[in-house]
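ingest -> validate -> predict -> emit
validate: passed (alphabet ok, no gaps, 426 aa)
predict: started
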Amino acid sequence: MLESPLTLPCGATLPNRLAKAAMTEGLATPDGIPTAQLERLYGLWSDGGAGLLITGNVIVDRDHLERPGNVVIDRVPDAAMAAALAGWARAGTRGGNHLWAQISHGGRQVQKTVNPAPKSASAVQLALPGGQFGKPVPLTTAEIGDLVARWAIAAKACQDAGFTGVQIHAAHGYLVSQFLSPRSNHRTDDYGGSLENRARFLLEIVAAVRAAVGPAFPVAVKLNSADFQKGGFDFADSLTVVKWLEAASVDLIEISGGTYEQPKLLGIEGMEAVEQQNVAPSTAAREAYFVDFAQAMQAEVSIPLMVTGGFRSRAAMAQAIEGGAADVIGIGRPMCVMTDAPRRLIEGLAQLPRYEDRLEVIPGWLGFLKRLQLMKAINGFAGMAWFYEQLWSLGHEGHTNEAAVPFKSFMALDKRNRAILAARSR
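emit:
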């Protein structure tokens, strides 16, 4: 069933069930404009056989980047920006696939080098070592309304440029997720307290985006199955929000989980114990992080679900679809190296490589160091930087750099980020 098409509630059809999940690229100009490097990268992915490509974070506020090099749409595009978006869309759809822009806002998960006083739902600082994130300032209701309008502006700009859909990022601890979680949302107004209030920001964004793009354009949401943190957004909350999103004319929900503090999305242990959820184990392969949650949701809703995180074997992907746990399978890190992974899977490839298994910075004989919070963070971020290095190489050179060393990739990434921020500030 991997190669079977999927018709969404809005009427659009995905040509197959494999999607490139959103991964941050860092390839825009310092001012957030798409580049030839982004076009080259997405052209390669479009040639790779996926039915759907979802971009990395397209940011609606240039002071709240997820990372330097994000594309930024925080106003109606001028002619140059519109042309750059159109070039990106052409490259990313040349294989006949869908290309959806993931629209996002970093909220409190914005490094101090970008913004030392970021905006969030409440003044709750990230509990991470290293002091890289500042204490956030609560958004006013007027600022919330402005952001809702910006999501709609960005969605319309992407539609006009030739993107075939949008995804609202409400997962992984970014701004919308910060509103959903009672750990980071301590508001006492209409956007805090009850789940209905905490979900108000998301539902207002969905309504504004749908009004801007019309009924036939795919609108998706990426949502945590849970934050996996004590006192955070849990599975019961997530299931209720999914029902509200289904009623709000959303076409596809991607199920993920975790935050910077608890990076369940990467299969990495966080700084605190994982808060277990009351979800029965399914019969699906254990390699997929969130398939149990999707399976439980499918019993309650009929909206199409996409599951991302951990899938590597063709058998597990097929089992998830045929067993009703997922309608679309998201593939992330393998496509940083094997850009045609979807085509290979459809043609019968049994197993995608697990590149992450060989990216440990700390050698086995020093494994005790991973018990230290700072070393645990460095080990995880260096592995992520290796994948960023592959995307940089694909965009700039058209091929990967598998010989890259994780720690050197981490240092190269830091150097590039500093250069982008320096150019941005001039």
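The chain is about 35% helix and 10% strand.
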